[in-house]
């Protein structure tokens, strides 16, 4: 939409209709964007800032064409603290789509430990040197670690220094600004990352706002002395738990066995009783938001069961209860989510990347439960959106395109077309709708006097352009708290 915005002390002071484009006037400067549209700043409500910083620094394997090609790419990587790290491989995209093996890595790297995670982050491919560092006998080991099995090797790697963490956060934050993002809900945040994010925010260096959701699977927030706290640019907003793993590595918890592997229903990362106890403890301590990762239909069902108990508490009526991903929801659970005011935090680009794989894992009968956006909205469920970067690209434009067109990679037509949503609904899920999921909608997500001056300026009208044009959209500028943080034309 075209509008002239006047900004004072980081907030919107006046809004004036403008016929020719968008204008931002601050105390000291005027920024003109003829023919361009201005929207409330884009929000990514589920992402991993450290992960993106690491991804940008580690060897990218997402474009590898084969197992050997991935090994070749690793050869050029920097060895940090004695380890070689890669991330993002996806055997489904390789010329031979079989899982990689320890031996291929051993041939090239007999001594340096190698740790290379799959695109979904739920599986690691390691060599013998890495296994030995973790105290694991490599002789009969495949070199593939899934979910909890990754932990011993992860623990064997040296921790990042504060300087490295600072560097990762800043790298990621700059890339977010380039994508028009003004605020990120950062998931599974460690004590060190929360502390350093706060330092960067308070010293005015952070170009985006961050809502941290700290680890809560085993009450880690308590060990670190982290409690809900708020500032303008950084807020420790909530607690994050996991109910299951991911679909790609068959870690997502299904009620019935996987269609392409009848021997498993996935992994129950945590029991319902344990989740419930952790949620009660977090609410007792004053946390206002709980986010639980649940992908498979049984994991979603389990989390709803936990939230149902939580909602019975007199003091928990206003608590934000989020299901992260909510990828496979059974029809009866859709109604329960709506009744209990449980928020679905979805990542539309996951559908674009994973639909072909999901068809194999779930089979025809369960497909209608997958990535169901229209049916969630129509049941009155609130939906916020994110990218889950670095698993997906931190592009909100790609997210809106995915919501609206729903055309998976390798397909020509919309997949389960009845679950597409409108451009207005998609934009809402990435702006005001996303702010609702961290309780910040009272001052962000709208172009209204008194609201925070967080804006994204793009070169087309996202509400009136044709769906086929959405993906062509360019981000021209990003403003957070009335300050220009990114400009495409900056010199
Ligand atoms: Zn995530």
Descriptors:
globular, Diaminopimelate Epimerase, Chain A, domain 1, six-stranded mixed beta sheet, binds zinc ion, alpha/beta, 16 helices, TIM Barrel, single chain, 24% strand, 491 residues
How would you summarize this macromolecular structure in one to three sentences?
This protein is an alpha/beta fold. The chain has helices at residues 49-57, 67-75, 102-108, 128-133, 151-156, 162-178, 191-202, 220-223, 272-284, 297-310, 331-339, 348-366, 374-378, 396-405, 423-429, 432-436; strands at 3-8, 11-17, 21-25, 30-34, 37-40, 42-47, 59-60, 79-80, 83-89, 114-118, 123-126, 144-146, 181-189, 209-215, 229-230, 234-242, 289-294, 320-325, 343-346, 383-385, 455-458, 475-480, 483-487. It folds into three domains: 3-40 and 453-487, no CATH class; 82-156, Diaminopimelate Epimerase, Chain A, domain 1; 162-436, Metal-dependent hydrolases (TIM Barrel, Alpha-Beta Barrel).
Question: How would you portray this structure in words?
Answer:
This protein has 491 residues and is of the alpha/beta class. The chain has helices at residues 49-57, 67-75, 102-108, 128-133, 151-156, 162-178, 191-202, 220-223, 272-284, 297-310, 331-339, 348-366, 374-378, 396-405, 423-429, 432-436; strands spanning 3-8, 11-17, 21-25, 30-34, 37-40, 42-47, 59-60, 79-80, 83-89, 114-118, 123-126, 144-146, 181-189, 209-215, 229-230, 234-242, 289-294, 320-325, 343-346, 383-385, 455-458, 475-480, 483-487. It folds into 3 domains: 3-40 and 453-487, no CATH class; 82-156, Diaminopimelate Epimerase, Chain A, domain 1 (Roll), CATH 3.10.310.70; 162-436, Metal-dependent hydrolases (TIM Barrel, Alpha-Beta Barrel). It is built from 16 helices and 23 strands. Strand 16, helix 9 (272-284) and strand 17 (289-294) form a beta-alpha-beta unit. It starts with a strand and ends with a strand. The model has no long low-confidence stretch (mean pLDDT 95).
């Amino acid at each position: 939409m075209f509008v002239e915005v006047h900004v004072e002390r980081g907030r919107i002071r006046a809004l004036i209709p403008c016929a020719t484009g968008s204008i931002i006037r601050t105390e000291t400067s005027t920024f003109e964007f003829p023919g361009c549209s201005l929207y409330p700043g884009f929000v990514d409500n589920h992402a991993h800032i450290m992960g993106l910083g690491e991804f940008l620094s580690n060897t990218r394997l997402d474009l590898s064409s084969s197992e050997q090609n991935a090994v070749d790419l690793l050869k050029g990587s920097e060895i940090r603290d004695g380890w070689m790290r890669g991330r993002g491989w996806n055997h489904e995209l390789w010329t031979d789509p079989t899982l990689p093996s320890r031996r291929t890595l051993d041939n090239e790297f007999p001594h340096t430990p190698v740790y290379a995670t799959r695109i979904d982050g739920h599986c690691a491919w390691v060599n013998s040197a890495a296994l030995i560092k973790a105290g694991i006998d490599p002789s009969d080991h495949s070199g593939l670690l899934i979910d909890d099995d990754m932990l011993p090797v992860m623990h064997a790697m040296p921790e990042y220094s504060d300087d490295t963490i600072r560097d990762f956060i800043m790298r990621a934050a700059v890339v977010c600004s380039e994508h028009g993002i003004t605020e990120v809900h950062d998931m599974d945040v460690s004590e060190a990352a929360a502390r350093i994010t706060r330092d960067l925010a308070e010293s005015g260096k952070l170009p985006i706002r961050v809502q941290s959701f700290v680890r809560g699977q085993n009450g880690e927030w308590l060990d670190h002395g982290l409690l809900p706290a708020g500032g303008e640019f950084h807020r420790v907003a909530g607690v994050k738990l996991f109910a299951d793993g991911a679909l790609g590595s068959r870690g997502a918890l299904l009620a019935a066995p996987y269609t392409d592997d009848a021997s498993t229903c996935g992994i129950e990362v945590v029991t319902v009783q344990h989740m419930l106890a952790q949620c009660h403890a977090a609410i007792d301590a004053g946390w206002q938001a709980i986010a639980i990762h649940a992908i498979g239909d049984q994991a979603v069902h389990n989390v709803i069961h936990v939230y149902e108990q939580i909602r019975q508490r007199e003091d928990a009526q206003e608590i934000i209860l989020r299901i992260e991903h909510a990828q496979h929801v059974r029809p009866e659970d859709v109604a329960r989510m709506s009744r209990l005011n449980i928020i679905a935090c979805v990542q539309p680009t996951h559908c674009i990347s994973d639909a072909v794989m999901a068809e194999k894992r779930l089979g025809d009968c369960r497909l209608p439960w997958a990535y169901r956006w229209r049916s969630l909205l129509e049941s009155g469920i609130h939906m916020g959106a994110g990218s889950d970067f670095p698993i997906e690209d931190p592009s909100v434009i790609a997210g809106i395109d995915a919501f609206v067109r729903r055309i998976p990679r390798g397909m020509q037509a919309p997949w389960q077309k009845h679950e597409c949503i409108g451009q207005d609904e998609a934009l809402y899920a990435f702006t005001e709708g996303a702010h609702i999921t961290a309780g910040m909608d009272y001052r962000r997500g709208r172009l209204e006097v008194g609201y925070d001056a967080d804006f994204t300026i793009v070169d087309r009208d996202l509400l009136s352009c044709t769906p086929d044009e959405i993906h062509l959209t360019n981000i021209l500028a990003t403003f957070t708290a009335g300050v220009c943080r990114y400009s495409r034309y900056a010199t």
